[in-house]
């Protein structure tokens, strides 16, 4: 069986209420810090992807243990400033070593330009291939991530594309 211990370290710091159901999340920052919240929809990654629903650092995440892969979604809606998508993506370097960009493309998600960046990097000496999608919309910053060992990256990529394909923000009234 593939060792998946380092995956836990990929989950970024966040504060949220958690899953409302399997289709959307109501993200709330702690009352002492929050002025806004984000409810957003996303696609289902499909069979074999187990939702991670516990942990103080989890907003929305799935793990595929046979691939050693993880998909994570994060939202922040307070004080994002005017940094570029490239600058927000660069911030994701924290904790990674040997960051080597494989590709970077502009894509449209929810009628907004997003930046999709694929990089090879290591976390605690473990090689990973990462697909980062950064999107700003309506004052919120979204960080959508897929990470897998380089030799299994292609196998899990369709699941990440399904999650991205179902991304919706904001949700219509009554769904959030």
Major β-sheet profile: 7 strands, antiparallel
In total, the number of strands is 10
Number of domains: 1
The general outline is globular
Round the mean pLDDT to the nearest integer and report it.
79
- Spans where pLDDT lies below 50 across 5 or more residues: 1-35
Measured as a percent range, the helix fraction is 10-25%
Keyword list:
176 residues; mainly beta; Protein Transport Mog1p, Chain A; 3-stranded antiparallel β-sheet; 2 helices; 11% helix; globular; disordered N terminus
Topology:
Blueprint: E1 18-19, E2 24-28, E3 37-41, E4 50-51, E5 60-64, E6 69-76, H1 85-91, E7 97-109, E8 112-123, E9 126-137, E10 140-148, H2 153-165
Antiparallel strand pairs: 1-2, 2-3, 4-5, 5-6, 6-10, 7-8, 8-9, 9-10
Tell me what the structure shows:
The structure is a single chain. By secondary structure, this protein is mostly beta strands. The protein is built from two helices and ten strands; from the N terminus they run E-E-E-E-E-E-H-E-E-E-E-H. The strands form two sheets. It has a seven-stranded antiparallel beta sheet, with helices on both faces. It is globular, with a radius of gyration of 15 Å.
Summarize this structure briefly.
By secondary structure, this protein is mainly β.
């Amino acid at each position: 069986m593939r060792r998946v211990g380092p995956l836990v370290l990929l989950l970024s710091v966040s504060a949220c209420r958690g899953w409302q159901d399997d289709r959307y999340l109501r993200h709330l920052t702690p009352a002492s810090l929050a002025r806004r919240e984000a409810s957003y929809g996303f696609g289902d990654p499909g069979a074999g992807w187990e939702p991670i629903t516990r942990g103080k650092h989890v907003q929305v995440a799935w793990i595929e243990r046979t691939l050693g892969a993880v998909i994570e979604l994060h939202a922040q809606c307070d004080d994002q400033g005017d940094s570029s998508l490239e600058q927000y993506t660069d911030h994701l370097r924290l904790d990674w070593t040997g960051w080597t960009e494989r590709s970077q493309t502009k894509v449209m998600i929810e009628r907004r330009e997003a930046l999709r960046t694929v990089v090879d990097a290591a976390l605690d000496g473990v090689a990973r291939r990462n697909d980062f999608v950064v999107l700003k919309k309506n004052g919120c910053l979204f960080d959508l991530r897929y990470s897998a060992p380089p030799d299994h990256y292609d196998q899990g990529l369709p699941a990440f594309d399904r999650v991205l394909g179902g991304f919706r923000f904001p949700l219509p009234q009554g769904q959030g």
